[in-house]
């Protein structure tokens, strides 16, 4: 009989000897809450590390293979969901609705683009938010900002805004429900979220005994946002040792050097499907800022899947100071994105959207004719989302740009 050693599969990309799931703790980190009691946080994280993983290694590997197809123009990713995911019963209802929306938009894309759609939810973990300011004045009182339901509550009181480490557990149990709900709804939608609170993510990072690789099993596809993508910092270095496919948002402040260093750190073996870059430049800036980055990545030989988040670079303050986004700007950015990628001999790999499955009035366009309509049904916990009609319009515009 073969000795057990002979059955051990070699990892495709051996995790470097120096990487460990806790290694990020020695590095600079940004966008973190001021936790009232770090021992309590560590105790919660320790408890979490003994709970079952939320995603499976084989599923994660399969997504990496699908993303490889997307980077080669043979599949198309639709990544969508809330900016900040709700908790509890609201989360499961929202997940069901998102599953429906992603499936139906995905079917349209598959039909129109003649390639399979990979459905990816901002779901089952999208609970922590980076913010541009750490404090805000509410009724004359300076309060910590809302950082997502993994950290605190949106209500404008000191009590609600106090970070509470036990929220990591509520988020875990909600994510578990969401994953079950997605499976029950028929599957076909992978999970993804921004990794921000690394105590949570570290606790759900598990060793695959078969290959010796580490996998983040809180999700299928973790991404790092534009505000935390420092290449010497904790977040990107946490991603570096994972066997998962990973993504990074790239905004207008990203330089060629930044992007090449991100690619070198996260995709040293130039493996298709490993790295997705999500461009979020803004309509005004994409034509100037994206081309040199795409050129440099192509020249460096990284088979990156380039996706467009045409939402986050187009956030403006509308009437009454409320955050909104105009469909015209979103469509404008998407159209330029397709032109830039094609101009470099690449195919767009996907579209990243913030959507609500209900008839919200958070973005301007289609039946939300102007900013005065925003107050009708504005419910987002964080950024403004597209309603169904607006999401359809964006998908139509993308299809038109892809057929040009
Ligand atoms: C987000 O996706 O909600 C987000 C904060 O994105 P970005 O990192 O692109 O600003
Ligand atoms: Co957002």
Automatic annotation (TrEMBL):
<dbReference type="Pfam" id="PF01474">
    <property type="entry name" value="DAHP_synth_2"/>
</dbReference>
<dbReference type="InterPro" id="IPR013785">
    <property type="entry name" value="Aldolase_TIM"/>
</dbReference>
<comment type="similarity">
    <text>Belongs to the class-II DAHP synthase family.</text>
</comment>
<keyword id="KW-0057">Aromatic amino acid biosynthesis</keyword>
<keyword id="KW-0808">Transferase</keyword>
<feature type="region of interest" description="Disordered">
    <location>
        <begin position="1"/>
        <end position="20"/>
    </location>
</feature>
<dbReference type="InterPro" id="IPR002480">
    <property type="entry name" value="DAHP_synth_2"/>
</dbReference>
<keyword id="KW-0028">Amino-acid biosynthesis</keyword>
<comment type="pathway">
    <text>Metabolic intermediate biosynthesis; chorismate biosynthesis; chorismate from D-erythrose 4-phosphate and phosphoenolpyruvate: step 1/7.</text>
</comment>
<protein>
    <recommendedName>
        <fullName>Phospho-2-dehydro-3-deoxyheptonate aldolase</fullName>
        <ecNumber>2.5.1.54</ecNumber>
    </recommendedName>
</protein>
